[in-house]
Amino acid sequence: MPYTKRRRLVRTAVAIALGATTLAACGSESADGEAQSGPASLTYWTWTPGMDKVVDLWNKGPGKKDQITVTVKKQASGDTLVTKILTAHKAGKAPDLVQAEYQALPTLVSNDALADISKNVGEAEDRFAEGVWQQTTLGTDAVYAVPQDIGPMMFYYREDLFKQYGLTVPTTWDEFAETARKLKKAAPGKDLTTFSANDSGLFAGLAQQAGAKWWTTSGDQWKVSIDDAATQKVAKFWGGLVEEGAIDNQPMYTPAWNKALNTGKQIAWISAVWAPGTLTTAAPDTKGKWAMAPLPQWSASENRTGSWGGSSTAVTTDSEHQAAAAKFATWLNTDSEALNALAKESGIYPAATNAQISGAFLKPPAYFSNQADFYRKAADIAETTAPSAWGPNVNVAYTTFKDAFGAAAKNKSDFGAALEEMQADTVADMKKQGFEVAP
């Protein structure tokens, strides 16, 4: 089946459309049901630290029994790896397995770089929350990867300072805003938190929780709705808090931000399950003083969270051993021994629900030793992950977010205008690439 821009449009549009039920897996049909015999040597591109030690368990155990050997090739992460995978795929030389962030899957699928492994993953779906599994199926009956780690979002706060200033942990965003104002009135030199424009994933996760679906399809056309009502609500909320000075407007992950957390100048943080590791480095003097709670909701009747980060293990269409590769990907992300090793060697929070409350996650992170139920609460929150809707040019949307929202946050100007710019740039890039975009 010859590759054309039209084919890429239709293939991706069907793949992303939520509720779609079929997908023609051109380029991988011949390998879907392969009856492999004899040894298979697989190559796995991943950025996860310590992955070679985890893979050793496979090579010495199930892999040795099945005559399937996996070799880890350490890579850079993010857009750098996506570009490298696509370059290798154009030459027909992509590795058998790749680690892919969830938002990168549509780009890889639209370029026919990932195989549909639905016939080779068995009952793996039952091991993951629905909203997590959906990110690797793109809402179809196809399966393009097995979830590996996730980043459910939650609310972190200084328990001691909340008590000192008579603050209540907010359960809604309205309460969150009032808490910020109450703190500012009681302690003008402190801020509840900051709006940071240097990490697009945070804003995307907040929009996801609000119900945003940035990329969907209508027939054979893409529909880009980055400026939809849900995202406008999020932008207006945070822009309003920044404009009135109720929260800080400085970026995260800077020496100044670290100092603000460590000294109690900022007393809360909207983050994800991986936050304890960051806080350990950023605010070492406040160990044992923080607590975690669910993300505030837009209405008291809701109970859902967004995602900030996370990745999967995918099989490429270039692999000559797709069934074997899918077998390894399933083992890596569902087997108890493998998941314990991933937690120990790589420090990941597993996507598999059973692993979130066992092994390395029976005890809280050392930084949160004061909250014995940390991981039990995190697992409950992870189950409420809202569905996502990624598209083929997430990188463009993210870049514009950093520029437009960065300027708006710094100048305390209109976040709505920044959102419009994000929408316009994303649509313009898709049209430039040859995608048909609905008005």
TrEMBL record:
Q: Keyword Membrane on this protein?
A: yes
Q: Which SUPFAM superfamilies match?
A: Periplasmic binding protein-like II (SSF53850)
Respond yes or no to whether keyword Lipoprotein is given for this record.
Answer: yes
- Transmembrane residue ranges: none
Can you tell which superkingdom this protein's organism belongs to?
Bacteria
Record's keyword terms, sorted: Cell membrane, Lipoprotein, Membrane, Palmitate, Signal, Sugar transport, Transport
Signal peptide from the UniProt entry: 1-24
What Pfam families does the annotation carry? Answer: SBP_bac_1
Q: What is this protein called?
A: Multiple sugar transport system substrate-binding protein
Q: Source species, please?
A: Streptomyces luteogriseus
